[in-house]
Each structure stands twice: as C-alpha cells, then as structure tokens.
Amino acid sequence: MDLDDLLDDFREGEITKEELKREINLLEISELGDYAKLDTGRKRRAGTPEAILGEGKSPEEFSDIMIDMASNKGVGIGTRVSKDQLLELKNKNEDFELNWYEKASIVELRSEEYRSNRRIGKIGVISAGTADIEVAEEARVTAKLMGAETKRSYDVGVAGIHRLFPELKKQIDDGVEVLIVAAGRDGSLPPVVAGIVEVPVIGVPTSTGYGLGGNGRGALFSMLQSCSLLSVVNIDAGFTAGAFAAKILKSM
Amino acid sequence: MDLDDLLDDFREGEITKEELKREINLLEISELGDYAKLDTGRKRRAGTPEAILGEGKSPEEFSDIMIDMASNKGVGIGTRVSKDQLLELKNKNEDFELNWYEKASIVELRSEEYRSNRRIGKIGVISAGTADIEVAEEARVTAKLMGAETKRSYDVGVAGIHRLFPELKKQIDDGVEVLIVAAGRDGSLPPVVAGIVEVPVIGVPTSTGYGLGGNGRGALFSMLQSCSLLSVVNIDAGFTAGAFAAKILKSM
Amino acid sequence: MDLDDLLDDFREGEITKEELKREINLLEISELGDYAKLDTGRKRRAGTPEAILGEGKSPEEFSDIMIDMASNKGVGIGTRVSKDQLLELKNKNEDFELNWYEKASIVELRSEEYRSNRRIGKIGVISAGTADIEVAEEARVTAKLMGAETKRSYDVGVAGIHRLFPELKKQIDDGVEVLIVAAGRDGSLPPVVAGIVEVPVIGVPTSTGYGLGGNGRGALFSMLQSCSLLSVVNIDAGFTAGAFAAKILKSM
Amino acid sequence: MDLDDLLDDFREGEITKEELKREINLLEISELGDYAKLDTGRKRRAGTPEAILGEGKSPEEFSDIMIDMASNKGVGIGTRVSKDQLLELKNKNEDFELNWYEKASIVELRSEEYRSNRRIGKIGVISAGTADIEVAEEARVTAKLMGAETKRSYDVGVAGIHRLFPELKKQIDDGVEVLIVAAGRDGSLPPVVAGIVEVPVIGVPTSTGYGLGGNGRGALFSMLQSCSLLSVVNIDAGFTAGAFAAKILKSM
Amino acid sequence: MDLDDLLDDFREGEITKEELKREINLLEISELGDYAKLDTGRKRRAGTPEAILGEGKSPEEFSDIMIDMASNKGVGIGTRVSKDQLLELKNKNEDFELNWYEKASIVELRSEEYRSNRRIGKIGVISAGTADIEVAEEARVTAKLMGAETKRSYDVGVAGIHRLFPELKKQIDDGVEVLIVAAGRDGSLPPVVAGIVEVPVIGVPTSTGYGLGGNGRGALFSMLQSCSLLSVVNIDAGFTAGAFAAKILKSM
Amino acid sequence: MDLDDLLDDFREGEITKEELKREINLLEISELGDYAKLDTGRKRRAGTPEAILGEGKSPEEFSDIMIDMASNKGVGIGTRVSKDQLLELKNKNEDFELNWYEKASIVELRSEEYRSNRRIGKIGVISAGTADIEVAEEARVTAKLMGAETKRSYDVGVAGIHRLFPELKKQIDDGVEVLIVAAGRDGSLPPVVAGIVEVPVIGVPTSTGYGLGGNGRGALFSMLQSCSLLSVVNIDAGFTAGAFAAKILKSM
Amino acid sequence: MDLDDLLDDFREGEITKEELKREINLLEISELGDYAKLDTGRKRRAGTPEAILGEGKSPEEFSDIMIDMASNKGVGIGTRVSKDQLLELKNKNEDFELNWYEKASIVELRSEEYRSNRRIGKIGVISAGTADIEVAEEARVTAKLMGAETKRSYDVGVAGIHRLFPELKKQIDDGVEVLIVAAGRDGSLPPVVAGIVEVPVIGVPTSTGYGLGGNGRGALFSMLQSCSLLSVVNIDAGFTAGAFAAKILKSM
Amino acid sequence: MDLDDLLDDFREGEITKEELKREINLLEISELGDYAKLDTGRKRRAGTPEAILGEGKSPEEFSDIMIDMASNKGVGIGTRVSKDQLLELKNKNEDFELNWYEKASIVELRSEEYRSNRRIGKIGVISAGTADIEVAEEARVTAKLMGAETKRSYDVGVAGIHRLFPELKKQIDDGVEVLIVAAGRDGSLPPVVAGIVEVPVIGVPTSTGYGLGGNGRGALFSMLQSCSLLSVVNIDAGFTAGAFAAKILKSM
C-alpha cells in the first residue's frame, strides 16, 4: 500500500491519525532509498558517474554492465579496460556513442540525450615518469568526462627538477584550479609541487618501483608524510583522483 | 654585485652582453628563492600560514619560534600545544594577540596589522566518536584561522547511524562546501558520508583503536579503499585536512 | 591386546589389578581417539561436515577425496571447486547425488541415506559489492548445506547506503537469526549493519581492492576495529562464516 | 512544524496532498534517528548496553559519563577502569548501585529500576595462561552483566594439554552453549578447543608475547588461520567477545 | 710459492726467519680456506651434504651442478626438483646411482664409493594436514639421506586432536630422539606436541593458508611464540629442519 | 567413584563388563591429565623445569609463585627478574637455597632434596656485542640450571671477525656439543658460525638496533634466511634457546 | 621573446630597467632547466648516463627509447633487457655500436663519437651465491660502462667463509677503491666484508630467499642494521650500486 | 709455544717439516686476529674510529668504556650522549682532551699524542627540517672527527624548494666532494638533491613524522626508491652516514 492511498484513506476518515503515523514510519525505512541523497538540486544534475572497473571481469560481463549503465544513466564509464573487453563492447554496442581513451584504458558509452556537462573549470595533471602516465591519464580522462578542461605535463620528475619549473609555470599561467600529481617510486614530486603552487594538489601514488617501498608504497608513504599541503588517494587510484578533482570544481 | 649594478654597467658599456648574460645565469640559481613561488597575486595575499608543531619542542623553543613567526609573517599558528608551552608563550608574548583553542590544542599569535582573512566559504567537520574530537577540532580551527566559516557535527559514528542523517542534513542545509570527516578504529564514517553527500569529502583517520589495525591504521586503510569518493590525509593530520579544505575554497 | 581380553583375564585372575590398571593407562592414550569428541548426543547427530578445499588439488585428487568422504561420512562438501574438478568428479561419481552451486563454487556429494538436516533456523547473507558475491555465496550455500534456511541481499554497500535500509528491513522482517555480512575494500558495511540490527553479525572480509589495504586487509582491519558488535573470520573465509553461523543455530 | 500539525492541516484541507507528501519526505531524513533501529520488540528490551572505555579518560570525565549513562539508560558499564577512576566514581556516585569486578577491571552502575536481565543461557570462558585472565574476565563479566550465566576454566593452555580435557568436559557437562577462549602468544588453544567441542567457539587473542608475532599478533593470526571452526574478535577485545556471546544467546 | 719451498729455503738459510714469518702471514689469509673448517675428525667424516635448490634453475643448469657435486663430493642432493629437471638429470647421468623421492621432490645422486652413513639415530616427522606433507617429506628424506632412520605420522592436526595421541605414542614407543613437526595455517600442532613429549621438537611452518597470516606467517608466528619448548626454521624450510635434526643426532 | 572400586565391583560381579567399559571411557577423559605426559622414565626424571617470567608481575606475585614452584617441584627458576622482585623473594624465602645470576637476571630457588642434575654435556654460548650479553647469559644460565656445562665467548661479532676464530676454536677444542649464538642488529654471526662448525647451532636474535629491521627483526629475518644450517628461537628468547639446547643433550 | 632581444631593447632604451628586471624574473623560472645542473665543468663531462629499464616495456617501445637516447646523448644503457627486446633492438639499430652483456642483462648502444670515458679507478664486485650473480653483474657492467675498471669475486658467501678471505685479499691487492657486495637471504656478507676491508662498501640486497624475510627483505634489513660501516641501495638495485660506486670515483 | 720457537726448533732439526707445518696450521686459526685486517698501510693509519653508543648505557658504564677506548686507541667517540653521561665522563676523565658537540650529542675524548687526522677533503651536510638537525649534526661531527672539513645547510626542505637552490650552489661552489642529506617525513630532499648535483649523495632518513610511514619509514622507503642516484643508511644513522662519507674521501 502506498502513501497516496494512505493519505486518501486518512482524509476520508478510514484510518486514524495514529494509524497513518505508524504507517508513515514504516514507509520511511523501506523508502529511504528515494530520498537519502542529500544535496541541492544543482549538484544532483552534475552528479558523479559511477565507474565500471574492467579488471577482473569477463568481456561479456563487462559489456553487459556498460550497456546497462548507459541505458539507465545515460552514460557508462569503464576503467582499466582490456583490448578484449573493448572489442566485445564494440560488437555488442548498437545504441550509444563509444569513446575510447587508449592511454587511460578508459571507455565511455554515452547516449545522445546525455548532455555534455557544462565546463566546470580546469584541472592540471602532472606525472613524474613514463611509468606513471597510465594512472595520470586515468585521472585526466575521468576529470574530462566529468566536465573539466584538463592540461597535462608528463615526465617531469624530481630526478631532473629543471624540467619541472617551466611546466608548472605553464599550468599556473593556464589557469588550472586543481592539480593532480601522479608519481611512483620515491613519490617526491607531489610534495615538491605542493610546496610551490597555491592551488590544491592531490597526490596519486603509482604502483611502480621494486624492492622495499615498491609497488607504490614508498610513494604513498611519502605523500602521506608530505611537509607541504597534500591530500592523497590510494595507489593507482587515478579514477578517484580525477573524480575528486572534478568534484572540487563542481562544489564551488 | 647585484642585478641593478650589472644592468647599469651593461647599459653604459662597461660589460658586454655576453658577460651580462653569464652573470644573470649565475644570479638565477642563487636568487631563485625570491621568485619561485608560482601563483597569481590574488592567491599570494591569502597564502597558507605555516604551522608550528608543538610536539617535541621545549616550551622555550616553541615560544621563540612562535613569536618569530608572528613578527615576520604577521601570524603564527601552533598545533599540538601543551599546557607548558602555552604558559611560556603567554609569559613571553608582549606584542601580539594570543588566541587559544583548547580542544584543538591550537594557539594563534597575530599582529594587529594582520588583516583577518576575508570569509572564503563554509567547511563542515564531522567526527565519529568522542576520541576523534581533538583531531576534528584541529582541522576545524585550522580552517577557521585560514578564513573559513566552520560547522561541527561530533559523535555521529556509524555504530548509531540514525544520529548521522539529521546532522548531515543540517550541514548541507547550512551550505557547507567541503566536508572533513574524522574517524578512528573502523573508519567507516567517511565512506558512508561520501556516499551520501555531493560536496568533496576529506577523510582524516585518527589514532584510536588497539590491536590489529589500531592506532588509526584500520581507519586509514578503510578510507584509502573507500568505494565512495574520498581524498585522505595521514593519521591524526587534522591541520593538513583543515588547511587543505581551506585551500580548496580559496582556489576557487 | 584389547580391553575386552584384559578384563576377562582380570576377572579370571590371570592378571592382577595393578597390572590391569597399568594396561588401562596405556590404552587410554592410544584409544583416546574414540572418545575425545566432547559433546552431547544431540549435537553429534547434527555435526559440522568437513569441507574439501578444491584450490591447489588436481582434479583426480579432489574427486577421490570427495567420493571417499561421501562414502565414509554420507556427505562430502567441496569448496573453491574449478570447472575441471567438477567435470572429473561428475565422471567418477556413480553412487551419490551431486549438487553443484555455481556462484559459490561449491559441490556437494551426498548419499541417499544421508538424512537432510532438520531445519535449524534462518541466516541472512548480505554483500557490499558484486565482487563480494562469490564469498557471500560460499557462506550462504555452506549454511544451507548444514541445514539453515538462507536469505540473501547482495550489492548493498555503503557507497549507496539508501539501498541498504529496505534490504535490512526485509531480512529482519523475514526472521533471520544471524547475519553474515561480506565486504571488501573499505569493509564499512558490517560495522554499519551491526550498528542497526540486534541479531549477531559475522563479518567476512573479501580480497578485493588494490593498493594499500588491498586484498581484504583494509576490510579485515576495519571489522576488527568495529565500534559496533562484530565477530570476524579471515579474508575470503566464506565457508567458515557459513558454518559458524549454522553452528550458532544448532547449539541453541 | 511537526507531523501532527501537518496531518491536521491536510485533513482540514489547508494543504494539498502534494504539499503534505513533500513535507513528509523532508521529515523523513531529519527524523530517521527515531525509527532506524531495526529489530523486533523482544530484542529491544534485552538490548546490548554500551561500554565506556576507561582507558585514556580522566577520572572526572569517566565518572561523569558513567553517571550520565546510568541516569539515561538505567545502567552504565565501564571497562579497563583504573583505580583512580573507580575512586572518583565512588565519590561522585550517589544514586546508583555500584558493582566492581576487579580482575576484569569492569565497573557497573545500575539504577534500582533496571530490571536484572532474565537468564539468557550459559557461556563458558577458557584462558590459556595467567596473563590472559584479565581479558578473559573482561569477557566473562561482560556476558554476565548482559544476563548470561558464566563458567570459567583458566590456565589450561596447550603447553600442558592434559589439564585441558577435564576442564572442557566440565564445561560441556555444565551445559555451556557458547565458549569464549582467550589466548596470547601462540594462540593455539582456541583451534584446539574448537576441534573438540560442538558449541560455537569465539577466539580472543591477548596482547601477550614479545618478539615477532608478539603483542597478540601471533595469536590473532593463528586464530584467523584456524583449521577448526572459529570466529574471532580483535586483540584484547574481551568486551566484544563477551557481548557477542551474549548476543548469540539472546537472538535465539 | 708454497709453504714447502719456503721452509726448505729457510732451513737452507736462503731466507731469514723474518722473511719466512712475513710470508707465512701472507699465506695464512689466502690459504685459510683449507683449514677453517673447525671440527674434530669424527664429525667431518659425517659432514652435512649441501643441497642444490632446484627451484629457479633450468633443467640443464640443475643437472650439471648435480653431476658436478656427485663427482666432487661423492653425493649430490637436489631439493624442490621439477619433473623436467629430473628427466634431464636422468638423461645426463651415466655414472651415479639416482634415487628419486617423489613426495619430497628430492633427488639423490650418489657414487658407488660413497659409503652409506652409519645409522645415526631415529627422527620422527609429524605433519598437520595433507597440504603440509610435501614439506614434511622434504624434511624426512633429508634426514634419511644424512643417515637417520625416520618415522612418519601425517595428517594429525589439532582440528581432530584425538588422532594425534596414538600417533605420538607410537613415535615415542618407537624411540625417536628428535621430532620434526610441520604445520601451516594456525601452526598449533608443534606447540601442542612440544607440550607433550620430552624429545626436542623442531617446528616447520608451511606456506598454507590464505588471508591474514596466510602463506605460513600465522604458523611461523605461532611457533616463535610457543609456550612450550620449540626451535623453529623458516617457512617451507623442510631441508633445513631435516638436516638440523640429523646434525643433532650426529653431534651427540 | 574411582577405578579401584570399579574393578573390585567388576571382579565381584556387581557390574557387567559393558558397564565397566563405559565407566572406563568416562574416566579416561577426566583423568587424562595424569597420564598424558608421553615419555620414558629416564626423561621424566630429567624433565625441563618451567620458568617464571618476572616481567609484568608484582614482587609479591612473583615471590609467591616462585616459592610455590620450589615447594611443589623442588626447584623454581625466575627469568627477567627485577631488583625489587629479587629483594622481595629474599625476604619471603625461608626454606630454599637461592641462587642469583645477575647478568642473566635469573634467580633459582631450590630445595635441599632437589638432586643436582647429572652433567648432561657441554653447551657453548657466543654473543656478538655487549648489548647481546643479557640474552646470551639468560640462555647460558638456563642451560646450566638444567644440568649442562657451559662455555661463553662474548663480544665477538662479525664487525671484527678476526676476534671470532680463536674463540670458536676454543669452544670446539673444549668439546661443546651444541652452540647457542646470540646476535642483534644485522644478525650475521649465527650464519657465519654455522658455516664453520659442525655442531648444531641455535640462533637467538636480540632486540637491539633501531630504524628499519630494528628491535631484532633484522637479526631474526637474517637467521631464518641463513644459508648455513640454523634453527632459531624468537627475539630475546634466551630461556628457550638454553632449555632447547639442554633438551638436545638430554634426549641423546 | 628571448634574453638577447630584451637586452638589446634595454640598451637601446626601448624598455626600462624595471621592465627588463621583471622580464628576467619571468624568464628565470621557465628557463631554469638550462642552468639548474649544479656542478663544475669537469664533472659534467663525465656525467652519469641514464638507464632505460627494460622490464615492463614492449620490445618496440624499448628499442625506440634506446635509439633515441643514443642519438641525443651519444650513449644509451638498457637494464633488465629481455631476449625479445634485444632482438628488436638489433633489428632496428643501424647507426650505433651495440654491446650486449648477457649475465647482467644490460645492453649498451653507443655512437662512434662517444668517447670512451677515461679510466676513473677500480671497483670490486663480490657476490654471496650463484643466485646473486645477475644483480652483481648489473652493478659491475654499469660501473664499467661509466668508466671504471672492475674485478669480480663471485660465490663467496659466509656459509663457507674460508672461500671469502683469499678473494678479499686479491681484491685489495688489486687496488680496488670501492667494493660492491651483493647478497640475498641472510645478507651477512656485506657486514662481514665491511668489517674486514678499509675501502667503502656498498651493500646490494638481492631478492632471493623464501618465507619470512624472503625476497631480499632479510638481506636489506641486515645491511641497514650492519654493525660495520655500510651504505645500502634497494633490493636488486644493481644499476644504482654500480653507478653510485662510479660516482664516488669520479667525484674524487 | 710461538712461531719463533717453532722455527728455531725446525732449523735446528728438532722438529720435522711435517710437524712444523701442522703447527703452523693450528697457529693460523688462533692467530688470525692479528692479520685479518686487509688493507694497505696507508689506510690503516687513518682507520675509522669505533663509536660508543651512549643510548642504553649507564653513565658509569659509558664513561668507563670511553676512557678505556681513549687509553687504548688514542681516541674515543661517544654518540647519543645524555647530559648525565657527559657529566659523569667529565668527572671521571683526567687524562684526555674532552670535546663536546651539543647539537650532535657527540663527545670526543682524545689523547695528546693522537695526531689530528690530515685534512681528507670536504663534506656537505644538508637537512630538510629543524627536526632533522640532530641527526645531521651527528653525521657532520662524525665526519669532522674523522678528518673532513664540513659545511652545513640546514632547514632547506622541499616544502620551500626556493630556499634549497642557493644553498646547494654554495655547497658546490665551496668544493664539497660528498653530500649527506638528512630528511624525515616524506624524505623528498635527497632524491631532489641527487637529481641536481654530480657529487655522490648519501641519504639519511630521520625518525620524524607520525601516522603511516612515520618514524622515518616513509623517508627511508622514498630514498630506497629514489629515481636519482642515492645510497642510503638506516633511519637516524647519522654516525654511519658521516663515517661512510669520510671513508669515501679517505679511500681515494
């Protein structure tokens, strides 16, 4: 029995106020799902799309979820997508625009009606070494798909710090409002960058490096310990960094 | 020999262009300090004050650095300040306004000329348990000292999740633009909050809990692994969280 | 020489009481095996079947042990069974009923005489994400094979907490007496659930998530640190969770 | 404006059904607190009291919270209570019955009206060494305060396994329905016990032992890896073990 | 120039005493190799053969080292030998007796002249589960090849402790002088055994178990923390355990 | 009712053989304690005395347990004994001979009737640095109290390996049958020694060293990884090493 | 606009001194790259070539970077190069001399004009076991390619310490100025060597060994804890060790 | 009997060549101590003094060892010396020059005859923050006491990287041949410095920072992972860094 009927019954005196109130309480819990999203109308329209992690899914499974998502939400974003998953998706997909970002291993499936997000601001993405580019690109493309303009400066690690300064200057001159800095191994780049610029810097450790502190642990520890102001996401969490950066822009 | 003189010499033909260029290159490195801060004029004026960590310093040492900082920068902020350090600072300080935030263990020393920052926006701070309040307050007071309005909701952990929803609603209704969520032990609160609200959420693990995953490790791991969108700072890093949140507001 | 003969010898005066006593002492140790199981008759009848872990065994080895178990105990339960192991078992098995639970990767081999356990009560199984379903199903099917009715609520993680409440309500309305909650990554679901319901909650971390706290470590730490009342099993230990939950019902 | 008034207004036609429905939705979120506790009436009456962790609180702070709790809930339970905290509480307390359990370092404050829980069943508590007794007692007293009868068998570790069997037999003969087994260092006792008895066994690692695997890590790892059926709580988490065991009895 | 010549030269007055002494000093360092082995003659004859670890070597490499060893030392022992390595060795070997121990994955290559070691005593080997047998066999065969009689008791873990006692009794009745106990997962068997028998017990953790404390970590920690008297070798170090046990017998 | 009476009843026909057998089974479990110690008579006489760990006990508690132990077993051994515990014990003790080993922090309390163990053989104890001496002495005195002759060589670490060789030679010349080698920090001494001598070597890591691998972790890891033949006990476990070495001698 | 033009403009009065100074400041940051390398001329000529890590790159990618490097810098050094990468490079390379060091898995590509470095001194490389040779060779070949003479002593671990002394003597007699010592498992060799020789010793842990402390962790910890004077590089970091050793020679 | 006598006996025919040779072999081992130090004469004269770690020693113990060392070696160096240890040493010392380096907590005791080392070169010491100064000073004073000139640049961390460049330039201009860089928390400074200068850089992590990666772990991991060329010593190992740097200079 739904709320409409209950209210009609109440108005017509078929149930008492006490009975109605008890019913409303019961409804609340089971229907919380419809109302629990706490935000203003403006934010909801620009909501964060969910990502489908390709890793660990069969091509069929992955494609089905992607198409499902695009059908229901207007857009589906797949991350860490393999060649096989991409092929299968291309075969299965009939109705949606498919955009493939190779270096980021991200695929987007979007319906015609899905309005491109309004431009929400500009995000810079910097990476230390060539091995960090895939994660950096995952962050950058994610931010882009969420409506941000993006600017990249790759391969500017601290081992050759002279390459960093002109790139940083370009980023700032270009007006980026948030910087994502991806670095593996020693993870020194984000603390260095955050010590120079005034915009918020989000550090993304990447799973590079072998031996002790390898697989991104040294980089993550270094960022958590940073003497300059950083916030951090988990190792290889490019999607989180990109989406968080976009969220910053949107929430302003 | 400084640049002015060199340029004069050059204009007057006393040194050649080649000589001048060589000198400029030499100057660059030793004088980089004056120019390396890359930001626009508007940002610099609202720059992030450095914090003086009280922990591990003698009362004398702490007080001296604080007064020094206030003299040079117009404001000094001390974190994790002990009673002894506070007393000593009160005794030594003659020239500055001293503000003590007891629950946050933060002390501020500011000169008269130090203009209060313009209001930069509103930040909400939520904490899971009573044991998390000190870190939450460190974050909140830091943000406040950097010019943000703040709103607190403490003791609303997931063990009694019904207490969380009305508090979250109040925060959102009140217009907070960034949320800082401090939690120790299981660290479940930030992932839960970030799954509900649309504003950016910064998770701060606190060093509570004993046994495996204690001292904030479980909380930090949980936040790094969060299925909903979070960025994270280190365990007990309330100052970092507060200053980062303020930086987000300022950079917009 | 066995006890019967010794007693006869003693009654007939062929051995002294001292000799008999010494012999009894010696027997005790070597025959403890027959008596050491400490429980009342009622419990023994409903005893916990042992599981055969498929992982790491060749198809032949696995099948032989399964058939052996079914022959001796009336029932054999195989967990983490691969397709190859299942095929080989199907080929080799002639005498027993074979039940395959695909999502749980569990196979049961039971003899005709093996009386279905009496219904022992109802267990609810909740999982946070799709990646947790295999472990959740391992728990659920295990409980079911041990005689419990089971009810599942999958894909209700805290990132979208509004989906959780109606599911929890259904579980409680349905009368579940124990809840098993499987979650990986941040592992926030079990603490949240245990903060809401009054029935005992068993947390099962799953080996999902990458980076720091990945492979279920973050989830396990979070559950061990839970502010609400939880008991925990190891990462991916679905069988243990299911069998433990069934044991709770049986022991009452 | 509250629901009563809204319903009156609606019945009297002062607001439309649509207006009422929108208001109800708004109310839901802020009032969820009152309804979110999902359980049947029978369970709620026997609800789990919250524990006040003495550790890390000043005697004043601790006493205030205890008296507060007793005033509001009818009963307050303090764990890991120091001598100073106990003294202060004795001084401050005027209105409640104070029960002190020295070996468990637990204090209970209860009002006259707080009806003793009905007997809910029997719980056995076993500990390996003398160093484990405090944690074992914390578990036992907790269970007792929640209405369980308890039976203890202490100092029966596997280094002298012959002492274990008669104690186990007594426990089973006595009719315990759940066993809590506390052990530090090698943590072998819970796996051994769980391999012998049929009732559910909850393992509690204690923070004993030095060197590698010390402070309870070896014991916890061993219990998580147990070949026999165990569920586990965190190191030294006697309160959790005791309350979880009592919850099992109550939920039946 | 060697010592003989130097001494001749000295006796014949061709070099002075000082010159001879200086030369002797120089010789000492470079010739230490011949004399550094500190032991009595009896021990040396029964010396510990070195093992060739098969793991990580190509079949060719492995076979060459084995044949080399057998040629030089009279015997070669290969551990963790794969099928391919065995085949290649069988093909290449012409001169030596080849003994293959399948369950232990050990191969022995011995020359005719290599006198079988005298019997040095008896070693018992116990393992907890079927997954521990390979490591247990590596230990047992190693001890056997070094001259010990061995007695095995496999699959007698603490989950069914009643199976343990009669096996232990047989071992002791049989006169074993050292016990090797292999166990993975919770590693409870060695502490239990060492609490019962009086002969020295060597614990060997095996790399079984998943989740926290998996891969033998829980077992190793448990053995290092054992309340009863144990010495320990590293995870899966069956060869070390077997050779150490044999060394005990030999040194007596 | 005890076994004697049962046997009398049986012989006199008052109970049947079946009844007697059932009773014997029941007795077995509750009386296992008296018979479970599996060893030959010779061993039992030379059994391993239990140690009372002083650490963490009050002087009173410690003294009472020591005197109790000496009264019941004829001898009590206390390890890691503080000055206060020693004083208290000296005050309380009236009946036993008290032997204090200061460098080992071990105290022995023995009755007159407690026959000194027969000499069981000779054990050498070597330590790397001065910081390792306390643990080395704990091992040496333990072995001595269990009947071994002991020989010490301290402060002969690998940083000055030339000091090691003559000491090793003396040990071997002196006829030691087992060597205990205590080392902290890099823990290189036991692998080096075990590569030189033929007698069994037991490595004892000590909790020296700071930074990564500090507190004995580096030493323990190094010993577990040793290329030469070692068995190992936990960090600082001098008592275990000494008692294990003595057990080796006794079991021969 | 570049500096030359600016200076001309300034000299010709087209811009003021203030304008020129502002422009110089701006240039500094973007042009820092050209001047930031701080060293004297002599050092720059003998600069450290960058290594291209083969691991994780496709043969095409690897070859392209190598050729690029050789074209721009005169020399390219690839480490951890696979057979496939070598083949592809051989196919693609037309212009450069290709030198392949098989045991070190290093390939060098050098232009004709690239003058062989002057001899800079002599470096010794010692390894403990056969499993350490690849890392040792990576270090040795790296040092050699940077201009050092090298001398190797392999397979001289502490398990047979008598093999070490004559090799060390040869190294010292040969005049090595720096020693690189590679060792896995227990990592005892570098502390032993550094205790004997007076030249600086660089320890390189190798990723050998299984179980606890395996994969080089035990070796690294041991070297960090060394009682004798060592500096250390990460596990398997042969290139770093070799290049660092060469840098020592060059900087003198 | 010593070698001289043996040689005399041999020359005089009182012992045979065989007898002499056997005696020489025996002597070798016990006298190795005198000859094992493998180095050229020049090095030995400038040998590395051993440091006495004050930490963990009583003032008496510390003073005795210091005076002993100074008596035997001509110089004694104490590190991590407390005020109490210094006082006691001042009281006890009568014969030696005592030099106290307060910031480094190092004390030197030297005899008149102990010739000051010749100047061996220049070492630069850089530290990131004020909390790193003690460790930096321990390194610097150590190097100085071993004969190096030293130059310090403190408080130049990457959070304000503009302060770093002029300091680096001064160091290089000043002719330092080795750089020691001490940094805690994120440990980014050594990788940055090593990417800029050409002289060898030794990284010293300091035990600063809290939370994950605290106590120097983040810094150490970062340095081990450094993309630019570093060698590393353990956390807080200032003495090792200083002595190693001096060794580099001396060995050239």
UniProtKB/TrEMBL annotation, chains A, B, C, D, E, F, G, H:
One of its GO terms (molecular function) is hydrolase activity. InterPro entries: P2CMN_synthase_LarB, PurE_dom. One of its GO terms (biological process) is 'de novo' IMP biosynthetic process. It holds the Pfam family AIRC. It comes from the Archaea. SMART domains: AIRC. Residues 121-252 form the PurE domain. PANTHER family: PHOSPHORIBOSYLAMINOIMIDAZOLE CARBOXYLASE-RELATED, SLL1489 PROTEIN. This is NCAIR mutase, PurE-like.
